[in-house]
Amino acid sequence: SANEINRSSGINAEYGGPGRLVAGTDILVEYLVKPLFEALCECPKVVDASLTCVQKYNGKFFEKTNRNRTEFDEFVRSMDWKSLKKVMNVWLIESWCGNIDGRNCIEDLGNNFRLSAEFLENTFAGRDVCISLVRSANEINRYLDANLNKGSLNDMVDAFWDVEKIVTCDPGCAPEIAEKYYTCCAKKSLEVSRTKSMKRALVKVAKSFYGKTPKLGSIIDKYLSIYDVEEFCRGQTDVYGKKNDVCEAISY
Questions:
Q1: How many C-beta neighbours within 10 Å does residue 47 have?
Q2: Are 102 and 168 in contact (CB under 8 A)?
Q3: How many H-runs (helices) and E-runs (strands) does the chain carry?
Q4: What is the enclosing helix (H) or strand (E) of 213?
Q5: CA 7 to chain centre
Q6: Would you put residue 16 in left (φ > 0), alpha (ψ -120 to 50) or beta?
Q7: Element (H, E) at 125
Q8: What percent of the chain has pLDDT over 90?
Q9: Which candidate, 127, 230, 111, places its Cα nearest to that of 181?
Q10: How far apart are CA 227 and CA 218, in angstroms?
Q11: Which residues have C-beta within 8 Å of that of residue 24, sequence separation ≥ 6?
Q12: What is the pLDDT of residues 152-207, one digit of tens each?
């Protein structure tokens, strides 16, 4: 139920009141997300430079605040920085920079933030509608439990996969999800995020976080299968395939 989701997440269903989460997200998108991504698209090398600064940080903050830097040092030591830079460049730059059919993809990214806020708002209000996680409450609680209780990566991906299967592929809701989310920009974003080179980078980054994990490549494969929405939802709906046909007729 929505109340179970709220208890697991530690979020009060009444927080903010109806509509305020979406309104607040709109302000965040307009004054932070869009300007940030416009700057990143104009100067993409900022991503690599920022990560290099983290990698080579001398730890003055820890000295001044008398904080233990052991976890930070372990993170720096264990991280595959080349792979992390690859992942962040794909997710932040390649996915959303550029125009498709005259539309700035950053606008679609902003719409995705708003859609996420709608999902949360409807979920916390207990609305059993398409733009809500109420219909996948059991799966969401499994996902939250795996995250909050430091479950295995496999448990997290399995639960997330099940959530997406319900939210994205339900024949009764897929047309609305496709209309609001699955634009040609979103299609491009998902495509560049599931390439072979991206998979290799994700495996290395996941290994840096989770250590030696059995069948790590298979776990990442399952996660990335969500990104091929037409195939992911095959047998349940064809709305994403039809949208793909439209987008493929447009020159990127």
A1: 16
A2: no
A3: 16, 2
A4: none
A5: 22
A6: left
A7: none
A8: 83
A9: 111
A10: 15
A11: 16, 117
A12: 999 999 999 999 999 999 999 999 999 999 999 999 999 999 999 999 999 999 99
Tokens of residue 226, six digits: 């969500």
> Is 219 within 8 Å of 205 (Cβ atoms)?
no
Sequence length of the chain is 252
- Token pair 């040609």 is found at 184
Given a contact cutoff of 8 angstroms between Cβ atoms, the answer to whether 163 and 228 are in contact is no
Q: Is 129 left (phi over 0), alpha (psi -120 to 50) or beta?
A: beta
Q: What pLDDT, in 10s, does the model give residues 206-242?
A: 999 998 899 999 999 999 999 999 999 999 999 999 9
Strand-pair partners of 15: none
Q: String of b and e for 116-132 (b: at least 16 CB within 10 Å)? A: ebbbbbbbbbeeeebbb
Between CA 232 and CA 101 the distance in angstroms is 26
Name the residue with tokens 């920085």.
81
State the CB neighbour count (10 A cutoff) for residue 177: 21
